[in-house]
Each structure stands twice: as C-alpha cells, then as structure tokens.
Amino acid sequence: ERDFAPGTTIAKLTKWATHEAKLGKEEAEEHVLQIAGTRNQPSKTAHLGTLATTGCAVAFELVRKQLVQG
C-alpha cells in the first residue's frame, strides 16, 4: 500500500509499480494497471483523483496486457 497525490497519472503509477515488481523494460511494457476486482484498465492519462471512491482510495492490480491474436 502506498499513497499518491490525486493528480498522479496512471502512467506514472504504472512505472512505479513495474519498478517495484522488478520487471525489465520489455516485460514492464507488457503490463498495465487494472482496478482491483474489476476488468477496468484506466487510460495512462487518467488521474488517480478521478478514479478514487470511498475514502479517497483506489486499489490496483498489475496485470499482463491482453494480446489480440488474429
């Protein structure tokens, strides 16, 4: 658990999360943040303050991007 300012973008938070998970650059690019318990993956430009719910908090999971296969 970590506190971030409401103006923090998903892009910045994703960079922090992939660093904390010790993912290499290529592997980090294959991951996105998803709101915990949902399939909602906010855009990289979204600000945390727009996603927070009760108690001004939001929880994320770092998940592998779903790759579209033709």
User: Count the helices. How many?
Assistant: 2
Distance N terminus to C terminus? 38 Å
The global form is globular
User: How large, in whole angstroms, is the Cα Rg?
Assistant: 12 Å
Strand order of the largest sheet: 1-2
How many β-strands, per DSSP?
2
Helix content: 10-25%
Approximately how much beta-strand content do the residues carry? 5-15%
Mean pLDDT value: 91
For the largest beta-sheet, the strand count, sense and barrel status come to: 2 strands, antiparallel
Based on secondary structure, the structural category is alpha+beta
The helix/strand series, from N terminus to C terminus, equals HHEE
Uncertain runs with pLDDT below 50, 5 residues or more? none
Describe the model.
The structure is a single chain. Helix content is 21%, strand content 14%. It has two helices and two strands, in the order H-H-E-E. The chain has helices spanning 10-20, 25-28; strands spanning 31-35, 60-64. The chain has a two-stranded antiparallel ribbon with strand order 1-2. The termini are far apart. The model has no long low-confidence stretch (mean pLDDT 91).
Short overview:
By secondary structure, the chain is an alpha+beta fold.
Sequence-ordered SSE layout with sheet pairings:
Elements: H1 10-20, H2 25-28, E1 31-35, E2 60-64
Antiparallel strand pairs: 1-2
Tag the structure with descriptive keywords.
single chain; 70 residues; two-stranded antiparallel sheet
